[in-house]
Amino acid sequence: MSLRRSRGTIYGPGNRAPKVRIGLDLIEERWPSDLKGARVGLLTNISSFDSCFRWAGYVLAASGRLSLKALFGPQHGLFLETQENMIEWEGSFHEELKVPIYSLYGRARKPSKDMLGAIDVFVFDLQDVGARPYTYVWTMDLCMEACEEEGKVFVVLDRPNPISGVVVEGPLLRPELASFVGRKPIPMRHGLTVGELAGWLRERYYPSLDLRVIAMEGYRRSMWFDETGLFWPLPSPNMPCLDTALLYPGMCLLEGTNMSEGRGTTRPFELFGAPFLEPERLLRRLKDFRLPGCVLRPVYFSPTFHKYKENLCAGLMIHVTERESFKPFKTAVCLMRALYELYPREFRWREPPYEYEYEKLPIDLLSGTDRIRREIEEGVDMEEMEAWWQREAEEFDREREAFLLYP
Questions:
Q1: Same domain as 277, residue 210
Q2: Residues 298 and 280: beta-carbon distance below 8 Å
Q3: CB–CB of 121/153 below 8 Å?
Q4: CATH of the domain at 260
Q5: Are residues 229 and 288 in the same domain?
Q6: Is-contact 363 253, C-beta < 8 A?
Q7: Cis ω on the peptide bond leading into residue 353 (within 30° of 0)?
Q8: Distance CA 372, CA 173 (A)
Q9: DSSP SS3 for 149
Q10: Is the backbone of residue 309 left (phi > 0), alpha (psi -120 to 50) or beta?
Q11: In this structure, are residues 126 and 194 in contact, taking their beta carbons and an 8 Å threshold?
Q12: By three-state DSSP, how is residue 81 classified?
């Protein structure tokens, strides 16, 4: 039985046709004719499946238009087997596909010359979540850099920005704070698909790279993931649903504090807290900020891993009631401002290391600037803070227009 037939039998065609056809769905129709028969390396993980629920590795291996020669995996592993940050994994061999598996979150972050030696084309197929600290796009960035150096073609199989491609929010990354949670100056919520971001990166940093993007069909940038007809792929272990992705461009900032951001629970980034927190007291202060599009309510939880493992935390859960008006970055900054005021002895900025940076504060790496932290400490008015970071977001919003692929 052919690989194509066996994988279709296992995963089945699904019960409904999606509104959007992703790049992986269009391999047979859109694979560039000049790359027919090319030796391909695929950067993916087990959550990258097509509309028939077939994993990308099997789809490419079954294609008659290319020859799959290697698999590459990002943070969390090819099979999403590693849960926490800075938990490395090393490569192995895929026994069924008979190709090597290379880790890009172990001894290497960037593909080496040896890793790329047996391929002509490097294919990227991972689901991003639309936020600068999500490391998959920076693995893509490093792979683009390596492919330009080695003269390899780089192909992106595009996927939706799950939190829509309309809103841009947050400050631009400062170059001195570049790290694996942000290597290039984009806002916290960038409003691009991975294919669009690749176009921006190529234009600004890798002008001699041969970049091809297999764009989606039926996608409009105003779409949220649940409007595409696609099934949520669980792109990483702590991204269980679309609500998590919407909160992530703000609540990921809590990774830079001693607050639990809900890792070790079933609702990371939606829950947050600490043993010392008093939910009702915090709620009273947060009401002063008149945060749009959300409701917060008291909760208690005990993380199974990460901060405060197996300790009871008091906290809040964020419910997004109007996602078009909700501002995840502003919400998180207001939260940290309230915590800094209410708990001057207990609330702390987390110390390094964080994502392989051993000197700079994690909160500054995540924010992309030290100005957020400094102005929280100085008590700068929130409207004044939001005004400067929104000016930066609007600057990027204008710049990105040249790279938009979808109406």
A1: no
A2: yes
A3: yes
A4: 3.90.1150.140
A5: no
A6: yes
A7: yes
A8: 12
A9: helix
A10: beta
A11: yes
A12: coil
Distance of CA 292 to the CA centre of its chain: 24
Name the DSSP class of 360. S
**The predicted structure's pLDDT at residue 84:** 76
The Cα–Cα gap between 347 and 377 comes to 12
Does 16 share its domain with 125? yes
Position 85 scores a pLDDT of: 74
Tokens (6 digits) for 182? 């942000």
Both 182 and 302 in a single domain?
A: no
Q: Strands 313-320, 271-274: parallel, antiparallel or unpaired by DSSP?
A: antiparallel
Question: Which residue numbers in the chain have pLDDT < 70?
Answer: 1-16
Asked whether the beta carbons of 236 and 76 are under 8 A apart, the reply is yes
Give the integer Cα–Cα distance in Å for 68 and 56: 11
Q: Answer with the one of 210, 234, 258 that is the final residue of a domain.
A: 234
Give me the pLDDT at residue 83, please.
80
Query: Are the C-beta atoms of residues 154 and 144 closer than 8 Å to each other?
Result: yes
User: Nearest Cα to 156, choosing from 116, 125, 112?
Assistant: 125
* Max CA pair span of the chain: 67
Residue after which a domain boundary falls, among 234, 263, 297: 234
Instruction: Verify that 52 and 138 share a domain, yes or no.
Output: yes
Domains identified in the chain, total number? 2
Query: What number of other Cβ atoms are within 10 A of residue 310's Cβ?
Result: 9
Name the nearest CA neighbour of 133 among 323, 325, 297, 329: 329
Question: Would residue 13 count as lying in a domain?
Answer: yes
Would 407 be classed as within a structural domain? no
Same domain for 113 and 180, yes or no, is yes
For residue 98, give both structure tokens.
């008979």
- Quick check: 105 and 76 in contact, CB under 8 A? yes
- Distances from the Cα of 91 to the Cαs of 55, 113, 236, in angstroms? 19, 16, 18
- Whether residue 397 is contained in a domain is answered as no
CA atoms within 13 A on the CB side of 155: 24
- Is 283 inside a domain boundary? yes
Instruction: In whole angstroms, give the CA distance from residue 158 to residue 149.
Output: 23
Domain of 302, in residue numbers? 242-382
Residue with tokens 């890798």, as numbered in its chain:
206
CATH code (residue 226) = 3.40.50.12170
Q: Please report the pLDDT score of residue 13 as a whole number.
A: 45
Q: Choose among 5, 41, 284: nearest CA to 143.
A: 41
> What DSSP line would sit under 318-370, residue for residue?
EEES-TTT--HHHHHHHHHHHHHHH-TTT--BPPSPBTTBSSS-HHHHHHTSS
Which residue type sits at 320? V
